[in-house]
Design brief:
The protein is α+β, with helices and mostly antiparallel strands. The chain contains three helices and seven strands. It has a single domain, classed as Roll (Nuclear Transport Factor 2, Chain: A), CATH 3.10.450. Strands 1, 2, 3, 4, 5, 6 and 7 form a seven-stranded mixed sheet that branches.
């Protein structure tokens, strides 16, 4: 009986880990595309109607165009943009996943700002895509993420 329970726990842990890798893939590719100034990879991580928002320190929510974001990133040189994240939480229900990631953002090798990202992903045709990102940005009390 104990062998069955241990086998089940190992198998379920493996399956959960595989699922998280698939969920994290578009998020990891987002930041890889930013580091490499790769507009095509960047475009591939988003749904067709994705939304990108930032909460200012005054509490105002600003909405940016995904296409403007992609264009902006592609104008940098490879290595200029480096957003380092820690995935703190993943919550999934069917084709919907929420991912919370504190981050530190480096511009040309210097720490620029930090904050947290909240991602909403949807599974479309067996691929996870980013539907919604909202983030905070601050310059104080930043910790470096390796």
């Amino acid at each position: 009986m104990n062998k069955i329970v241990v086998s089940f726990l190992l198998f379920s842990g493996f399956c959960f880990g595989q699922q998280n890798q698939e969920i994290e893939k578009p998020i990891r590719n987002l930041f890889l595309a930013m580091r490499n100034a790769d507009a095509e990879l960047l475009k591939s991580v988003f749904t067709e109607n994705a939304i990108l928002q930032t909460i200012t320190k005054e509490g105002i929510v600003k909405t940016d165009s995904i296409q403007d974001f992609i264009t902006s990133v592609s104008q940098f040189s490879k290595g200029d943009l480096d957003e380092r994240i820690t995935i703190e939480a993943i919550h999934t229900d069917g084709n919907l996943t929420s991912v919370f990631t504190p981050y530190s953002f480096y511009l040309k090798g210097k720490l620029s700002h930090c904050g947290a990202n909240s991602f909403q992903l949807v599974q479309q045709n067996n691929d996870w895509k980013i539907q919604y990102i909202i983030d905070t940005r601050r310059k104080e009390k930043c910790r470096e993420i390796k």
